Each structure stands twice: as structure tokens, then as C-alpha cells.
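hi! just following up on the protien thing from before. the input was this:
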Amino acid sequence: MIFFLGLLFLIFFIQNRFLEKNGKFSNRRSLTGAEVARFVLDASGLKQTSVDCFEKDHIDFRSGLERLYLDRKLYEGKTLLDVAASAWTAVLKTKAHQSTLWLPLDFKEKIWKINKAIIWTGWILIPFFPPAGLAAFLFVFLIEILDFPARLEIGQQALLLLKHSRNFEADEIARLKGVIRGLELKGFARFFGVVSDLFKGKARVYGL
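and the predicted 3d structure came back as:
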């Protein structure tokens, strides 16, 4: 169990290093997350899909292809983290409607909420019933393993579209690659991330 928790913490540490080292810089063209998402949608043939801003959890999942929602931080943000996360969310939107193999976004969101509850249950159980807490973690870990190839595909396409946009210099692309690597690891970093977010007050990014 100690080895498993150590592995999860190592992944969490690496993921944070990717994001904090590369994502804090503003992009030189001052593009907002909304503008980046707009480009990704247009390049993917979803010109009819609007990019909207939402507050908290007020999202209409029934919008289908009509809308892509970004929280205000991403919508207005200009850092490389905002750029990468907005591109990621836009690619997720296109993937979810291009293939029957992809779960609808509202269902993926529900799964994440369930996983989050299971993770918290695991943390509560570990001090008193270690096997039960570990079983809860392993269940979520297995789900994340199954989802990881999809996350790699999203990251690869998001980075490719950002390169093709010609809006970013070579050094910015290198940093964006680092940010996207961090986003790819986010599923495995959530075990410690749910605790860290309590203290940092991070805004939740829809679709990540």
C-alpha cells in the first residue's frame, strides 16, 4: 500500500511540475482561451458550435454540438495553461461527437463526480480500514488506466492543432507540450489532487 500511495504522489508531483513550470507564462499574442477554443472547433469542422462562459456548475449538457462551455478563468485566460486546457476541452468536445466509442460529456462528468466521491471515501477509510481504502483507490485507478489512451489521443491532437495555428513560437510550443503532458496525467494525479485543491481553491476545468 505504501508503494502504491508513493507512486500516486510521484505522479501528482510530476504532473504539478509540468503544469507549474510551463503553464504560468502568458502567450505572446495575448490569445484568450475562448479564442483558442474557437480555432480548434473551426479546424475540426464545428463552426456552428459557440464558445460560452459559465459560472460554477451551471452547464446545459443537452446543448450537444451547439455550445462549448469554458469556466471564466479559461474563457478569459491568456496563460499557456489556459491555452492548452481550452484546446484540450475543445478537442474533447469534437471527439465526443465524432465517434460512438466516446462517452457523452455529461456521462464522463458524472463518472468523474463518482470517482471523486470514491477517492474521498478511500482517504477516509485508509487510517481505519487500509484494505478497503486501497480497494477504493485501485477501483478508480483502473478506470483511469482505461481512460488514459483517450487522454493521450486528446493531448496529441490538441498539440498538433496548436502547432498548425501558427500563433505560437517554438519555445511556446515546447512549453505547451509540457502543459499537455501534465493534463494527460491529471487522471492519475487526482488522488492527491482532490486534497490539494481544497487548499489551493483551483477552479474546476470542465472536461478535464
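The first strand starts at residue 50 and ends at 54.
The beta strands are 50-54, 67-71.
cheers
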